[in-house]
Amino acid sequence: MALMTGEQYIESIRKISMEIYMFGKRVENPVDDPILRPSLNSVRMTYDLAQKPEYQDLMTVISPETGERINRFTHIHRSTEDLRNKVKMQRLLGQQTAACFQRCVGMDAFNAVYSTTFEIDKKYGSCYHDNFKKFMFYCQKNDLTVDGAMTDPKGDRSKAPHEQSDPDMFLRVVERRADGIVVCGAKAHQTGIINSHEVIVMPTIAMGPEDKDYAVSFAVPSDASGLFMIIGRQSCDTRKLEGSEIDVGNSEFGGVEALIVFDHVFVPNDRIFLNGETEFAGMLVERFAGYHRQSYGGCKVGVGDVLIGAAAVAADYNGVAKASHIKDKLIEMTHLNETLYCCGIACSAEGHQTASGNYMIDLLLANVCKQNVTRFPYEIVRLAEDIAGGLVVTAPSEADLRDPKLGPVINKYFRGINNVSTENRMRILRLIENLALGSAAVGYRTESMHGAGSPQAQRIMIARQCNLEHKKTLAKNIAHIKE
Ligand code: SF4
Ligand code: FE
């Protein structure tokens, strides 16, 4: 089997008995849970689009190793064209879901672990690269979704992993056995975990020799013994229980974050990709973060396309589409959104080959991309709210619209232009609410700030990559300074 259909994917997740908790209770049937299902539907789109002939070149590739057609989300980038196509694929999926479709973290982990394990093996003669390739082929062959788990809870941010008063603040090895390792700890903010077949764990920061037990990377199935998840609440999440399609804004798609707890999880030797080689923790983090910062130049742009479209529709419905300031605001939103896309494409086009043979993005440009993402979606949301008007946050419920007494009143007073129904006007305003303030705001707004690393993390990388000394030399040359 190479490619799964969307339906096969859903059924494959149904078969996995994950230990998931929400509102203090175990979720017995996450696949059909109304709060969780939209997030599963978003990942499903990565399978559905791969089946469509018009998207085949973007969504799939022929594996250079096996000659089989595989989903791009399980692919190792072999060229700068692959890197650009990745960003284009993510924009497409953002447009189709208006949510986080989650599967990119696995793809980014694949590519970071692939090149890093190659370099560890070269230094130590270990077999991490072969371990990883075996795991990768298994995922490609079965078209699996893989979560990439990096973010540790981190406790006291001023302290290294081994200095924390609670040693579990960073995920660590607690036992080394002949057949593998046992790990304890947690990974936070994991959007894709409950919709993934497997999870790749990576360290979250560069480490020193005393952090040996924390420098660990591996893969386990999402139903591994000792592994469980606690779902995070989102703004307006229980609206999904009310049965209203309009009030949730985006009734079909979403994303859901969870804390993954590893309570003495066993990892067999052939699933280990890093185990104590502390000097490679930083390389793995830098590469994964770089790829995921590139990713945001695709996915957030696609969601931005939907938000710009929604603002333009709201303007049409309000009868203000011809006002020059509205046109200018839509131009500004587009300018900001396309600037993000430029960064995603640029860091891909300027990519280079690593020692392992796969392709890495330009790290400076990828970090500039993500730094812009921490700002521009906020301005795009501000302009969308400006255009849409206050009804985004004051509109009555769908139940009121359907009520025999209240419905006609709502229809009368919340109508915009004559030939558009009040219901359609409410639908587009609820979509804007969803993207700006509702559950999709996690994926579009706050994730733009903190996903793939908070702004300061990019600034550190920009400082490291910007080659200030070279710039100083340029200035001194022009000014004819001889020291
Ligand atoms: Fe993919 Fe974007 Fe979600 Fe990351 S935030 S997993 S890049 S959709
Ligand atoms: Fe993300």
| Domain unit count | 2
Work out the oligomeric state of the chains in this entry. Answer: single chain
Query: Which molecules other than protein and nucleic acid are bound?
Result: iron/sulfur cluster, fe (iii) ion
Number of DSSP strand runs: 14
Helix content: 40-55%
List the helices and strands and how they pair.
Blueprint: H1 6-14, E1 20-22, E2 25-26, H2 37-48, H3 56-59, E3 60-62, E4 69-71, H4 80-97, H5 104-124, H6 128-142, E5 146-149, E6 172-177, E7 180-190, E8 198-201, E9 216-221, E10 227-231, E11 258-268, E12 272-275, H7 281-318, H8 324-349, E13 352-353, E14 359-360, H9 363-373, H10 376-388, H11 391-394, H12 398-402, H13 406-413, H14 422-436, H15 440-450, H16 455-465, H17 468-478
Parallel strand pairs: 1-10, 5-8
Antiparallel strand pairs: 1-2, 3-4, 6-7, 7-11, 8-9, 9-12, 10-11, 13-14
Descriptive notes:
The chain has 2 domains: 7-281, Butyryl-CoA Dehydrogenase, subunit A, domain 2 (Beta Barrel); 292-478, Butyryl-CoA Dehydrogenase, subunit A, domain 3, CATH 1.20.140.10. It contains 17 helices and 14 strands. The chain has helices at 6-14, 37-48, 56-59, 80-97, 104-124, 128-142, 281-318, 324-349, 363-373, 376-388, 391-394, 398-402, 406-413, 422-436, 440-450, 455-465, 468-478, and strands at 20-22, 25-26, 60-62, 69-71, 146-149, 172-177, 180-190, 198-201, 216-221, 227-231, 258-268, 272-275, 352-353, 359-360. The strands form 4 sheets. Strands 2-1-10-11-7-6 form a 6-stranded mixed β-sheet, with no helix packed on it. A hairpin with a 2-residue loop joins strand 6 (172-177) and strand 7. Helix 4 (80-97) crosses helix 7. The radius of gyration is 23 Å and the shape is globular. The model has no long low-confidence stretch (mean pLDDT 97). Bound molecules: iron/sulfur cluster and fe (iii) ion. The site of fe (iii) ion has 3 residues, from loops.
